[in-house]
TrEMBL record:
Presence of the UniProt keyword RNA-binding in the record: no
Listed GO MF terms: glucan endo-1,3-beta-D-glucosidase activity
Record's protein name: glucan endo-1,3-beta-D-glucosidase
One Pfam family from the record: Glyco_hydro_17
Statement: the UniProt record of this protein carries the keyword Hydrolase: yes
Source organism per UniProt: Cardamine amara subsp. amara
Main enzyme class: hydrolase
InterPro entries documented for this protein: GH, Glyco_hydro_17, Glyco_hydro_17_plant
EC number: 3.2.1.39
Top-rank taxon, per record: Eukaryota
Gene3D superfamilies hit by this protein: Glycosidases
Entry keywords, A to Z: Glycosidase, Hydrolase, Signal
Amino acid sequence: MDCPKKSFLFMILCMALLFNYNNGGIVDAATNIGLNYGLLGDNLPSPSEVINLYKSLSITNIRIFDTNTDVLNAFRGNRNIGVIVGVKNQDLAALAVSEDSVNTWFVTNIEPYLADVNITFITVGNEVIPGEIGSHVLPVMQSLTNVVKSRSLPILISTTVAMTNLGKSYPPSAGDFTPQAREQLIPVLKFLSQTYTPILVNIYPYFAYASDRINIRIDYATLNTEEVVVQDGPLSYSNMFDVIFDAFVWAMEKEGVKDLPMVVAETGWPSAGNGNLTTPEIAAIYNTNFVKHVDSGKGTPKRPKSGINGFLFATFNENQKPAGTEQNFGLYNPTDMKPIYKLF
Ligand SMILES: *[C@@H]1O[C@H](CO)[C@@H](O)[C@H](O)[C@H]1NC(C)=O
Ligand SMILES: *[C@@H]1O[C@H](CO)[C@@H](O)[C@H](O)[C@H]1NC(C)=O
């Protein structure tokens, strides 16, 4: 049975009913999607207003990019919301020097919140692998892992990587890492594999589509068709998101990293900034379909059983990001907190 696409709210209600039916009434939440909460704007609502928004949407997983004190203080007492926090890229070099410096960072930035904020992950850097400071990621991850282990905390330590690690991503079974990625990423993946801690990945079909709109179908880029568009051996693909995800899975397998879970830390579609590719209508289609994909519990063709754990980018349009599409990934307008298009 499929939910008719009358409106997103209608669809979510219908899906919630289906889930209740399928789970004997156990599942209440409207969606399993997480949201990124970026702070690069000078007109953003206060953190407590934002938390009220998340509560009204039944969002139980959010991600921030650092350990912002105002935000973490506002999350105190909201332990049912899992929060991913991050070590800032510019702090990596200093932290890579010693476990002592990492311990000090932890005591300053994490410890004050442990009693009443539900910190689920600390990500060591965002999209620094592959790159100049990519080699700092592993030592900081190792030190942080020791710190949380020594305190028996259930916080996972990982990093967030972009798809620029892939030299090849099409067809998915040809997925392969670039030489620089191989050098910096493989040791990280092997380290994560020891404890099956997920690697966090940012997957943006939008950028691939925007760079080759002649050859890429919009319905394939926006998860808006059920038609098989890519046949890769026995695996059939109808959307580009799954192709990219599975290319990463294949690339990991070729390096001997099997079954490592992947969390989609970011995906989304801008609602403005690049002509008719970036309208609220297209952004709504992509994001709605992605939420549907996550909530269906179906994984990708290569990992059909594991489901997708995913976060949309982002809660608000951020006016201090580079001009153009970068400022327009938000689901909500920061000044009045109104949705830019109907999604939840
Ligand atoms: C913390 O967040 C995670 C992820 O959403 C959730 O599974 C867990 O139940 C939360 N913890 C509490 C105490 O609610
Ligand atoms: C954008 O406009 C061009 C030129 O009119 C058209 O060919 C293309 O199909 C449009 N793309 C979308 C996504 O609407």
